């Protein structure tokens, strides 16, 4: 088996991605032409001479592997030629930032056929149009084309198709992309472990966040996939809690709070990890938290077992709800039959979000085809709909939350309140929320888990002890 580092030592497969996108255009009836994409522009912070933090445009990176700002690319589909354009040397910039990458260096680093300067974009487009004849077509993304870019000689300029074709192509990852995701997960696993260890001496959520981010940076993931969520106690009931500034001491008891939910992932060369763990601040889960943790872990493990090429994602999501219902019934929080509770969507009060989402260059990656207008509350927030293809990478992140804002409408409903025992429920408000999230690569026969961060109860308690 080829090692991870050996795979990543090779060039990012930009040319293969360009061909895949061309095939996507061909499937829509478009043969030949050129694909034109621009990198993110350098922009300055308002009232400041510092640049805005740089984030490369994902369509551009997918067809270039290049992280340089102010660049461009042309893929001549008919000639199967991929050309990267990088900014010319600016003497003023060299004074402050040193020499930039040269075309020769770029050609050695990136999987492209030619490297030119951006001053040659228009001339190159015109030359290709003249060679391709009267029916030449250029594909670009409308809102990502500079005003000074001219498509001289092209009979058709399509600005509304390319983005969707690229997003569809990105769903299925190749070996190199999976290696990047695995590397992001490996770094993030180290950071999750460091965060748990840092919690022993921490007095505030932000110290745990700091330990996570510093470990990512030290291991090569300078950027975060998203702003980390570090939620202690009841804060874990807020799905996208982001303050990360609350003290770990409960002011009413002067005791450390019971548990922390941390949802965080590092970004490695634009590819994201997205991992959630819950751990006890005091070394041992309280009985109520442990009970909920066991249910959520069963939800996740059972759903992962179902995963393989062609599985219907809605079926996996529904199965997670079935397990949640069974577990909450056993605890006495819910009342009624499993089928009643499922049909009435009572479990949505405790598990309101979708089971997961595609993962890649974006945390919530492209191609999921969500339907947020769905009137069925169990499926409304699913970010992925339909059958999973082999090669896709998806998160599996079930959770159970005790959020009054979500649960109160159920307990106050004349029709639905009979299904929830509020006296039993009262014992679980302090749990906040439990979510466990891993990143799963779908294969023809099953799946492989890219996430190596500890998650079993004994592991989490041992780390936190």
TrEMBL record:
Entry annotated with the keyword Chloroplast: no
Catalyzed reaction equations: Release of any N-terminal amino acid, including proline, that is linked to proline, even from a dipeptide or tripeptide
Role noted for this protein: Catalyzes the removal of a penultimate prolyl residue from the N-termini of peptides.
Alphabetized UniProt keyword annotations: Aminopeptidase, Hydrolase, Manganese, Metal-binding, Metalloprotease, Protease
The keyword Manganese is annotated on this UniProt entry: yes
Transmembrane segments: none
Family: Belongs to the peptidase M24B family.
Domain of life: Eukaryota
Lineage, broadest ranks: Eukaryota, Fungi, Dikarya, Ascomycota, Pezizomycotina
Record-level Gene Ontology MF annotations: manganese ion binding; metalloaminopeptidase activity
Designated name of the protein: Probable Xaa-Pro aminopeptidase PEPP
Co-factor(s): Mn(2+)
Ranges where the Aminopeptidase P N-terminal domain occurs: 12-148
E.C. number(s) listed in UniProt: 3.4.11.9
Name of the top EC class for this enzyme: hydrolase
GO biological process: proteolysis
InterPro entries per the UniProt record, alphabetical: Aminopep_P_N, Creatin/AminoP/Spt16_N, Creatinase/aminopeptidase-like, Pept_M24, X-Pro_dipept-like
């Amino acid at each position: 088996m080829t090692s991870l580092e050996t795979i990543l030592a090779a060039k990012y497969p930009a040319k293969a991605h360009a061909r895949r996108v061309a095939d996507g255009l061909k499937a829509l009836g478009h043969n030949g032409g050129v694909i034109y994409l621009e990198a993110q522009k350098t922009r300055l912070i308002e009232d400041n001479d510092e640049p805005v933090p740089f984030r490369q445009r994902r369509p551009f990176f997918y067809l270039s592997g290049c992280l340089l700002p102010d660049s461009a690319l042309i893929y001549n589909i008919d000639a199967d030629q991929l050309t990267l354009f990088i900014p010319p040397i600016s003497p003023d910039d060299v004074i402050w930032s040193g020499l930039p990458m040269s075309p020769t260096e770029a050609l050695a680093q990136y999987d492209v056929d030619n490297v030119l300067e951006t001053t040659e974009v228009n001339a190159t487009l015109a030359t290709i149009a003249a060679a391709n004849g009267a029916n030449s077509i250029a594909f670009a993304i409308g809102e990502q084309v500079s005003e000074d870019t001219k498509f001289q000689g092209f009979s058709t300029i399509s600005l509304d198709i390319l983005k969707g074709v690229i997003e569809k192509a990105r769903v299925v990852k190749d070996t190199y992309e999976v290696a990047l995701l695995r590397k992001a997960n490996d770094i993030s696993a180290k950071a999750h472990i460091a965060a748990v260890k840092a919690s022993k001496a921490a007095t505030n959520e932000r110290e745990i966040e700091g330990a996570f981010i510093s470990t990512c940076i030290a291991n090569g993931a300078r950027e975060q996939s998203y702003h980390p969520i570090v939620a202690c106690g009841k804060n874990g009931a807020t799905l996208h809690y982001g303050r990360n500034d609350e003290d770990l001491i409960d002011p009413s008891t002067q005791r450390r709070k019971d548990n922390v939910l941390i949802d965080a992932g590092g970004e490695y060369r634009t590819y994201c990890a997205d991992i959630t763990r819950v751990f006890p601040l005091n070394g041992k889960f309280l009985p109520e938290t442990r009970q909920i943790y066991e249910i959520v872990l069963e939800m996740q493990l059972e759903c992962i077992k179902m995963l393989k090429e062609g599985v219907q994602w809605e079926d996996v999501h529904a199965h997670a709800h079935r397990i949640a219902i069974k577990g909450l019934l056993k605890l006495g929080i819910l009342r009624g039959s499993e089928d009643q509770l499922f049909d009435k969507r009572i479990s949505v009060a405790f598990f309101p979000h979708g089971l997961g989402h595609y993962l890649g260059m974006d945390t919530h990656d492209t191609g999921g085809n969500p339907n947020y207008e769905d009137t069925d509350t169990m499926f409304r927030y699913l970010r992925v709909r339909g059958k999973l293809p082999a090669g896709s990478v998806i998160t599996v992140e079930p959770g159970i939350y005790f959020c009054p804002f979500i649960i109160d409408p159920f307990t106050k409903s004349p029709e639905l309140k009979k299904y929830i025992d509020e006296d039993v429920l009262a014992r679980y408000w302090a749990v906040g929320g439990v979510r466990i999230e891993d990143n799963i690569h779908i294969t023809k026969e099953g799946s492989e888990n890219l996430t190596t961060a500890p998650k079993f109860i004994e592991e989490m308690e041992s780390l936190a002890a």
